[in-house]
Each structure stands twice: as C-alpha cells, then as structure tokens.
Amino acid sequence: MQYIQTAIKNNSNEGCIFCTKPQASEDRKNFIIIRDKTCFAMMNLFPYNCGHLMIAPYKHTGELDDLTETELADMMLLTRRCKRLLTTVIKPEAFNIGINLGRTAGAGFADHAHIHIVPRWNGDTNFMPVIGGTKVIPEALEPLYLRLVAAVATLH
C-alpha cells in the first residue's frame, strides 16, 4: 500500500510519463529497463500482472502514422527482446501484447503511443479483481526490476 500511495503521489500532474521519465536519467527510480536508439522499455507502475512492461518511442505522439519506419521497427524489436527477457526471468506461460490507441480504446496516456507486454499464467485471474476491485501481484516492482535489469545484459 505504501508503494501504491507513493506512486499515485509521484504521478499526479506529472505530464506524459513516456516523455518525463526517460529525460530524468533515473532509470532505477523510474523502472526503465532498456534504452534503445528510438524507444525504451519500462515497468508499469500499476501492472495488470507481474512483469507488465511498456515499450514507447521517445517521440511524443499518440499516432502510429507519426512514427518513422525505423521507430516502428525498433518498437517491435524491443517488444520481442522484452518478451524474451520476461520468458527468461519469470517464465510466464503466455503473453498479452497490444496497443491501445486513443482514450476510448483504453489508453491511459492517449497522447503517447506505447505497447503493453503482459505476462500470463494459467489461473492468474481469480475472484480478487471482481469481488475486491484489486489484483494480487506476487512480486514487488523493485526486486523484479533488479532481476530484469541484471538479465538484460545476457540477452541480445
């Protein structure tokens, strides 16, 4: 609960997280796992599941049409790299990978396109989201961040 309250306080009126966080040069604090030429990967502060990552271009745009061919390709290559990283470190059984374009589609940050990578396990959804309006995440973000960052160097 302390983590959630801190995250909410730190993210209120912050602007676009996909612009401010990579500019801050505080990767550990901002849970940025990988920086590439045109895009980066970071952990979601409010994950749908353990290991929920987001891939975003450095360019601030909510439209895929505004990205260059290189930026689009880099995002997909980084998505594949992060899927491999998650497979190695936390061994999920499957993944949900997707993009929500626009607020109506569910984009929390509609003005900055990004790809979600959500690891999945058989039985990872239970009564908690329905009855309690909450989800149980089995590993805190900080320890998982450290494990993922340590494994990044081993994957190409």
Describe the structure.
The model has no long low-confidence stretch (mean pLDDT 86). The protein has six helices and five strands; from the N terminus they run H-H-H-E-E-E-H-E-E-H-H. The protein has a five-stranded antiparallel sheet, with helices on both faces. Helix 4 (69-90) crosses helix 6. The chain has helices at residues 2-11, 17-23, 27-30, 69-90, 127-132, 141-152; strands at 32-35, 39-43, 53-57, 94-99, 115-120. The radius of gyration is 15 Å and the shape is globular.
- Please give the CATH architecture: 2-Layer Sandwich
Report the CATH C-level class. Alpha Beta
Number of helices: 6
Radius of gyration: 15 Å
Structural domain tally: 1
Give the number of DSSP strands. 5
The CATH homologous superfamily name equals HIT-like
In the CATH hierarchy, the third-tier topology is known as HIT family, subunit A
Structural class: alpha+beta
Catalogue the unreliable spans. none
Largest sheet: 5 strands, antiparallel
What share of the residues does DSSP label as strand, in percent?
A: 15-25%
Shape: globular
Keywords, separated by commas or semicolons:
156 residues; alpha+beta; HIT family, subunit A; 5-stranded antiparallel beta sheet; globular
Layout of helices and strands:
Layout lengths: L1 H10 L5 H7 L3 H4 L1 E4 L3 E5 L9 E5 L11 H22 L3 E6 L15 E6 L6 H6 L8 H12 L4
Antiparallel strand pairs: 1-2, 2-3, 3-5, 4-5
Helix pairs in contact: 4-6
